[in-house]
């Protein structure tokens, strides 16, 4: 907290005075500044390096870069065309307008590192080995965590998150093959069983109504 307060006075207020035309966001020691050109970005970067030195701090140049926000309106190129902030990776992505037209948008989605953490967490649950529990019990345990992921990472480019959450269904299908004798060694039937459960109770698992519903294939 003390570091955050220090940066508020050492950086935030200083940026507001020296570069009022440059919007920025800061979370702890991660900062994004929105500049109108590469020249302006370099000018601001050099000024920040100097300012931090004045207050006894040093900028981590290995993690600091000028990024070109490439989209359908900005069609140039640059060495760096993506960045990660608060576990979201911002980069050019294909998008569709309300009229159905495809275009390139510079937009966020769950980062690769965050996706790996989610995958590790899902694997750690070992749902497929917990045949002593019911689906309702499994859902009660994991739903609060899954809802947190959906509420945070599902706000932008949700399809990326939904692709990750479908892994839960794979483990649930494997759970079914261990839970029921009639499904042992029959993964296709186990998936169809899961589809039937989802049709009967579509909100049993938090990721189902979010779009990661089971698929019979």
Walk me through what this model shows:
The chain is an alpha+beta fold and 217 residues long. It is built from six helices and five strands; from the N terminus they run αββαβββαααα. Helix 3 (112-125) runs parallel beside helix 5 and helix 5 packs across helix 6 (187-200). The chain is elongated, with a radius of gyration of 23 Å. The chain starts with a helix and ends in a 17-residue tail after the last helix.
Radius of gyration: 23 Å
User: Can you tell me the overall shape?
Assistant: elongated
Number of strands: 5
Strand content: 5-15%
Number of helices: 6
Note poorly predicted spans.
none
How do the SSEs run, as a string of H and E?
Answer: HEEHEEEHHHH
Sheet with most strands:
3 strands, antiparallel
Give average pLDDT, whole number. 95
* Span of the ends, CA to CA: 51 Å
Helix content: 40-55%
Instruction: Quickly give the structural class.
Output: alpha+beta
How do the strands and helices of this protein lay out in sequence?
Layout: H1 2-18, E1 24-27, E2 30-33, H2 38-54, E3 83-85, E4 88-96, E5 102-110, H3 112-125, H4 135-153, H5 158-179, H6 187-200
Antiparallel strand pairs: 1-2, 3-4, 4-5
Helix pairs in contact: 3-5, 4-5, 5-6
Quick recap of the structure?
With 217 residues, the chain is of the alpha+beta class.
Tags for this model:
3-stranded antiparallel beta sheet, two-stranded antiparallel ribbon, single chain, alpha+beta, 217 residues
